[in-house]
């Protein structure tokens, strides 16, 4: 890849289930009642709500696919704004756009903007991601 080159990154999706949310909460330490206790969450929110970082995971996976895991975890960055809620039963598609390869301080990086959207077309996360490319 050369600097100033545009790049296409294939979209990824995640299907949210209560089981997946519970497992993520246990693993990530985000097992709050709003995420894992339907009896508590339903009267307040209509259902449990998925953890934002779980819904953001496809974006990270796309960037790991381009940058490689070592490069991403050493120098990847995500700026995200959570603009909607996701619930068990939702399928969320993460898409990258305006992706380009740039050179900074002698190192090539990939950067672009992203959105995460439910099967109903509701945007729930928007942001930017960038990370170093393999040398």
TrEMBL record:
Membrane-spanning parts: none
Superkingdom classification of source: Bacteria
Pfam families xrefs: MaoC_dehydratas
Location of the MaoC-like domain: 12-109
Family according to the record: Belongs to the enoyl-CoA hydratase/isomerase family.
Protein name per Swiss-Prot or TrEMBL: MaoC-like dehydratase
Native organism: Blastococcus saxobsidens (strain DD2)
């Amino acid at each position: 890849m050369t600097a100033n080159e545009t790049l296409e990154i294939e979209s990824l999706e995640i299907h949210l289930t209560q089981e997946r949310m519970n497992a993520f909460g246990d693993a990530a330490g985000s097992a709050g009642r709003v995420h894992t206790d339907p009896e508590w969450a339903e009267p307040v929110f209509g259902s449990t709500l998925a953890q934002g970082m779980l819904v953001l995971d496809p974006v990270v996976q796309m960037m790991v696919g381009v940058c490689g895991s070592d490069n991403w975890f050493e120098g990847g960055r995500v700026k995200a704004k959570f603009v909607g809620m996701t619930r068990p039963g939702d399928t969320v598609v993460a898409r990258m756009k305006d992706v380009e390869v740039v050179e900074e301080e002698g190192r090539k990086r990939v950067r672009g903007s992203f959105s995460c959207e439910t099967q109903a077309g509701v945007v729930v996360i928007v942001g930017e991601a960038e990370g170093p490319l393999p040398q």
